[in-house]
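Thread title: Can someone regenerate the structure for this chain?

I was given the following input by a collaborator and told the matching structure tokens would be attached. They weren't. Posting the sequence so someone can regenerate them.
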Amino acid sequence: MARIIILDELTANQIAAGEVVERPASVVKELVENSIDAGATAVRVDIRGGGIKYIRVSDNGCGIASEDVAMAFERHATSKLRTANDLERGITTNGFRGEALASIAAVSNLEMITKTEDSDSGTRINISGGEVMNLCPHGAPTGTTITVKDLFFNTPARYKFLKKDTYEGAAIAELLSRLALARPEVAISLYSGGDKQFATTGNGNLKETIYSIFGAAIADNLVAVCYQENSVSIDGYIGIPAIARGNRANEILYCNGRLFRSKNMTTALEMGYGTRLMKKQYPFACLNIRVAPWAVDVNVHPQKTEVRFAEEVKVADALRHAVADALAEGNSIPDALLSAKRQPTYTPAPDPEVQQILAELRVEEPKAAYERKTVEFVQKPVLNDADLNKTTETPSIAPEITHTEPVKASVVPPVEELTPVDLPQETPQEIQPAAGNREFDHMDYMGSLWNTYLIFQRDKDAILIDQHAAHERIRFERLLAEYRRGEIEQQQMLFPITVSLTSSEYAAVFSYSSQFESLGVDFEDFGKNTIVVRAIPTNADTDNFPETFVYMLDRLMSGQTVSAKPETFLYKIACTGAVKANQRLDRTEIDRLVEDLKTLDNPFNCPHGRPTAIKLTLSDVEKMFRRIL
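Best answer:
Regenerated them for you:
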């Protein structure tokens, strides 16, 4: 019979390390967060071998008193928490459990040099595999430098699961950039093999921090968000639809300055964009959600990457409104050559004080394997094609950082369990701004390309309008308005439309009669798996209506309802009934199309998210002809 024993401290620490220290990026996260909690205004991170061989984090924080250095590496040792009452009031620091340093030291060769401002000298401690090898006085500037070498050298089972150096290094860059965005008032820099990856100014300007990390192509196309609703406030920046990407890597959310992941919140974020985004396109966002500390539980994940909101529905709803309101204010016609822009609108100014602080963090390592370069901030030069690709390309995202299971709320169900009226997930109802857009005023019609793209001139800009996308948007908004009034205008069919169904569709279709009626569609049985449609919405495409009917029936049979997601059904009707590409319009029809666009709340995207219009400036054309550089 096996006896029950108490695990020794080393084994317990290695087990804890498996929860806290998953990969080199986990080490960087814990150490940089400790630096920020220590009041550092500048943090420098150096890595080699993707952080597996070498990580060094240097800061100018308050340091650790010499008598507390050894204790800092004991499990559950912390300066940020005193009693359980602190947990009940909510944790306002980045870390609090006191497991990080002990866990990191248990699976690496670690050195820490630290000094407080009122101490004459600093302290150095060396730990190998959790065992203290050396503890002695050491000269050092105020702050802390921690060097971690040979991660997982004594836990081969963990080591073999690490990926290539480039992958692990990219994960560190990704994570550190997120921490920098959370703290624009802290100058954070990353060096890999001695080469600077990025450096933020630490001047507190979030937009400049975004520029430092993502480059001008992102920073020049942002919309500011500043929103307050009851006890929830949201601030930061979101990208215009034109810079959306094919994954959620750039959906960056914070809660009270803490980076977190939540399927519910990303769903709410995307819902705020409504139909402005194309399918499977995801926006850029860097938003901080602020709630009372007691209204959020951050102690629900070993790596503190998830949070639980006390009122999750309220927070998600506020996020959705914040994004929709900001986009409504920032509506504009996208530039045709957005992705080819070369000149940044602004460049962060050098900060001599920050340069000096970062220079002091250069703690020289004996027998360094690479030559360090002096930290300095310089203005970015005009970018060429190759540089632009480097600037705007985000490092590969480690799945462990960007993907997770939904956060489960303790007080309210998560978004996917809510009734669709509260928070629909797919093709969401768009929150409408005030009507009367003036972006299409004072345009002179110049002609048409391929009977598809209408050309207008406004001052020194050329505006191209996609006639199908524009008419589709007009029809969609009108149908949606009619549906909300409960009176979709119908046209009675002189010759009824016959629709052939499968046996399962025929058996189910009559149970959805009332939902079809709410969409302006009346039908009746014709026998033998066939129905006939007697009435459809005015101006719907009669030729393609059988396909449209089956599409809507399929959505209903899959569990969707018209009342919860009318847009899912109406945009199909709008699309098939809109004018087509290669369809010649006369001048009266063109003028009517433009005038109708002016009345829309969002005239800039079709219901699928494609742009209805793009802008080509005179300077764009002159650059293409090399008249200007």
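The longest strand covers residues 490-500.
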